[in-house]
Design goal:
By secondary structure, the chain is mostly helical. About 75% of the residues lie in helices and about 0% in strands. It is rod-shaped, with a radius of gyration of 48 Å.
Length: about 190
């Protein structure tokens, strides 16, 4: 019914605590990575906008140039700002990468102790529960082996002991019918009258 195994009642709180710690850790890591990704996207959008503005200005200057010397001066005047903008872009990328690594290290340091503690508690709880289960199983096997070795030692199992069966007192082995008392001279008289 459920995709996850059902844990015993003693382990369930430890599992829940560990899963909560892991979830908080992953949520903070995801937020940090998403923030870095968003900064990269904003930086790329800004670079594209700047490059479009620069190319628009360069094309206007090229189209408005009357002579070839003006054309060359317009092209060279636009290469320097574009190079500076690309250098600034690479610096921003390096800063974002450094900030992202620092943020991920901070988040990891913040959560690793709690996650390790809950993992240790979960492992201890699982080990304790496993040893209890093993001990119970061993006791049940010992009890089964003891009962198998001496089946008449059990009380109330329906097996009759020799004193309950009536074989030990010799009252039913005489050959008389139920309800008739045994008389020793009766068998001799019946044979003598014939």
């Amino acid at each position: 019914m459920y995709p996850f195994p059902q844990f015993p009642q003693s382990i369930a709180p430890a599992v829940r605590t560990h899963v909560d710690a892991q979830t908080a850790f992953l949520n903070d890591m995801t937020k940090s990575m998403f923030k870095s990704f968003q900064q990269m996207c904003d930086l790329n959008i800004q670079l594209v906008q700047t490059m479009l503005e620069e190319s628009t200005l360069a094309s206007k200057q090229v189209l408005s140039a009357d002579r070839q010397s003006e054309l060359l001066s317009a092209a060279t005047s636009r290469t320097q700002p574009a190079t500076e903008k690309l250098r600034a872009y690479h610096q921003h990328i390096a800063r974002i990468a450094t900030d992202s690594q620092a943020e991920l290290a901070r988040v990891t340091e913040q959560h690793v102790q709690n996650t390790s503690r809950t993992a240790r508690a979960l492992a201890d709880e699982v080990a304790r529960d496993a040893s209890e289960q093993t001990e119970r199983g061993l006791r049940a096997q010992q009890e089964t082996a003891r009962q198998f070795a001496d089946p008449f030692a059990r009380s109330g199992n329906g097996a009759a002991s020799p004193s309950q069966s009536g074989m030990g007192d010799g009252s039913q082995g005489s050959g008389t019918t139920a309800g008739q008392p045994h008389q020793p001279g009766q068998a001799q008289r019946s044979t003598a009258t014939h």
